[in-house]
Structure formats: structure tokens, C-alpha cells
Amino acid sequence: MSRAVVVGGSVAGLACGLVLAEYGHEVHIVEQDPCGTRRSVPHAEHPHLFRSPTHRALERLAPDVLEEIRTAGGEECSVPETSADEPGRSTVLLVRRTFLEDALRRAVLRRSGVTYTSGTEVSGLCFATTARPRRVIGVRTPRGRLLADLVIATGGRRDRTFGWLREGGAAAPWRFEESSRLTMYSRFYQLRPGAVPGPLDDPISAGGIHDGFAAKLLLAGGKVFSVSFGILPGDPELQALREPAFFAAAAGRLPATAAWVDPHRSRPITPRPLAIGGLRNRLLRLVAQDGTPVVHGLHLAGDSLCLTNPVFALGVSVAFEQAVIIAEAVRRHPADLAAQMLDVDKAVTERIAPQFDAVLAQDRTRIERWRAAIASPAVADDPSGPTRHQLVRELRRVA
Fold it and tell me: According to the model, what pLDDT value does residue 40 have?
């Protein structure tokens, strides 16, 4: 048995805790936020979809979490499988992100060999004095050093591992980062007692990408659903969607959402639209450009490893997948740190990087399409669905 420190107690960190405990490791999860608060995870309150890999991981590792979700009104929904590797149908989870995280935390605390410390910020890595490449042996906190055989960074979108490696004298790791050029505004609604749900395009959602913007309705379980708009950052007219009156007007105009947000059918349960921007796609591998490890004893998971546009709902699934990748590498090479690093990087390039590349390609295509829509003159109304110009005209009526 080895001792692992997991930096970050969000969903990715909790997933690592569950997986490593299952593999027999002693795990200490260190979370900077006080228990029950998510100040460091601004997107936690936004809509989330938990795809089939997350459901399968919970079935195997934490059936108690699934049972808690069912009891609370969350739903498991069968949907067509979009992956060519897994034809047929799969099961997705419809539940608020905050509830899933709380249920995961409770499950982790029930596992033997797992310690969870909240309200403690990790300020850096501890390194062995002379090892090359640099050998991570723990983390620094205000309470002192936490030493470990293995450190997993799950710091999320604001992860500081890159800077900590530089401070420790490690070589620069392989890194790619690009803006997703997306700002999102979202709002949750609840169906009124006795109200019949509106129409859907598939078992869990309606809407999609239009010329110049995106609009999506997503079920969240328990008669709750969300409506989200995506626009280019700084869009001079559509950024008005951050205001409740403009958001309501837009949602009431779109065929995919109008019936759902009818005041006789539902009511908003978030006081005003939730906004999130500055979204980026980032992949960080702990190897140099020539493929040699830049550090030993450290691994990445969740958004620390692979950060993608949240529209694609890859984050939690990738976190569970990466946790298993790390645990398997340690199991195969318990005393060979270099082999562990190379094993993990091989799996990342074969299994995680293709998902990242697919998101990158789709984002680039969308960005060009939306830029063209903003630059183009107004055209005739499209009967199949509103164009950006039609939506802007609707917002001007409200103004």
C-alpha cells in the first residue's frame, strides 16, 4: 500500500480518492474551500451532464452514490450512444453538479483509508533534494508538509501545478492551450405542480447550435431543467442575455425552449442568469517535447490534465478515466516511477488526447461560423429556427 495526496476535493479529486481507495492505497484529499462551499469552483452551480462513463464508474465504485441520487429525485436516463466504439444505448445521470459532489464526498468519507481535509490550501510541492528528474514527495500547506509516495493534482481550471513545477526547478512540461471563445448564460427552472413537460429533441435535451449563438435545454432530474445560451465573448448585442428580462425574452422566442419556460408551466429557481466566461481548452502532459518525464511522483487528473469546453460534458468522465489510468500504472510498476509516468502519458495520448482534439476542432469550426454570422448583414427570417439577427431583434423589442 502506498500513500497518496490528492490536491483538490472537487469531483475530480473525489473520483481519484474513490479509485485509489479501491486499489488499496491510503489517500489524503486536501481541499482549499471550507466544507460545503465552492468558492474556487465558479462553474459548480452551472448546468452539467454526466455521461455514461461517469455512470459506469459509479456503478462499479460507488453504488451508494447512485442510490442517494435516486432517493433525492435525480434520474438515470437511457440515451443513444454517440461513440462509434460503443454502439447501442448508454445511461446518463440527470442531477445538479453540487448534489453529485456532495454525495461523492459523503461516499469518500465512508471509505476506510481515506482522509478528507477541507479549508486547507496547498501552496506548493515538496521535492526530493537531488533527484533528476525532480521527484515529488509531498505538498506544502499552512499546517506543514504532507509527505506521500504519490501526489495527484486536481486543482481544476485554476490549477497551479505548472507554476509549482517551475518553482521546483523541473523542466517545462508539454502544454497546449487555446481559448474556446465562448461565454455562457444559464438559468434553472422547475416545472409547476401538475405541469406537463415540453417537447424534447432527444430523451434529455432540446436545442443546439444556431448561426451566431447556441441555445440548449437540458433536463436536470426532479422536474428541474436548465436553459443555456452560448455566445462569442463581447458580442455587442447578445451579451444582454445576462439580464433576466432579456434572457426570458430570448428563451420565450426559441422553439426549443418557449413551451418549457411558459410562466404557466415553470418558474425560474435561479434569481438571475448564471454567467461564465474565459473558457479555455488546455491539455498538460508531464513529459518534455521529446516524451521524457519532467517529474516523478506527480500525476494530473480532471481539468488539471484536460480542460475542455464544458458544453461537451467531458470533465467528470475524463476524471474517472484518468484516476483508473493512474491506479493501473502504479499497480503495474509499483517501484519504477519512470515507468509509471510513461505508462500514464501513453494512456493520455491514446485515450484522452483524441477527445481533446475533437473538442478543439469543433470549437474552431463554431467560432468561424459565429464570427461570420456577426459580420454578415441581416437576412430573411429562417422558419426552421431563429438566426442571430432575429434574436437580436427580439431583444431590442424588450429594450
Answer: 47
Average pLDDT over every residue of 147-162: 91
Which pLDDT band, with edges at 50, 70 and 90, does 346 fall under? very high
- CA-to-CA distance for 8 and 117, rounded, in angstroms? 10
d(CA 173, CA 313): 26
Distance from the first to the final alpha carbon of the chain: 64
* Nearest Cα to Cα of residue 310 among 207, 223, 394, 186: 186
Q: Which of 9, 3, 8 is nearest to 27 (CA)?
A: 3
Q: Quote the cell numbers at residue 345.
A: 502519458
Q: Are 217 and 44 in contact (CB under 8 A)?
A: no
pLDDT, residue 34, reads 87
Predicted confidence at residue 322, as pLDDT, reads 94
| Each residue's pLDDT tens digit, 27-50 | 999 999 887 555 545 455 777 888
> In angstroms, rounded to a whole number, what is the distance separating the alpha carbons of residues 322 and 2?
18
Residue 154 C-alpha cell reads as 486536481
Task: Return the biggest CA–CA distance within the chain.
Answer: 69
For residue 399, give the amino acid letter.
Answer: A
Q: What is the pLDDT of residue 332?
A: 96
- Give Cβ neighbours of residue 341 (< 8 Å, ≥ 6 apart): 286, 287, 293, 295, 296, 299, 329
Q: Cell triple for residue 394?
A: 427580439
H/E/C letters for each residue in the chain? CCEEEEECCCHHHHHHHHHHHHCCCEEEEECCCCCCCCCCCCCCCCCCCECHHHHHHHHHHCHHHHHHHHHCCCEEEEEECCCCCCCCEEEEEECCHHHHHHHHHHHHHHCCCEEEECCCCCCEEEECCCCCCEEEEEEEECCEEEECCEEEECCHHHCCHHHHHHHCCCCCCEEEEEECCCEEEEEEEEECCCCCCCCCCCCCEEEEEECCEEEEEEEEECCEEEEEEEECCCCCCHHHHHCHHHHHHHHHHCCCCCCCCCCCCEEECCCCCEEECCCEEEEEECECCCCCECEECEEECHHHCEECCHHHCCHHHHHHHHHHHHHHHHHHCCCCHHHHHHHHHHHHHHHHHHHHHHHHHHHHHHHHHHHHHHHCCCCCCCCCCCCHHHHHHHHHHHC
> Does the pLDDT value for residue 389 go beyond 50?
yes
- Please write down the long-range contacts of 81-89, taking CB distance under 8 Å and 24 or more positions apart: 81/52, 86/52
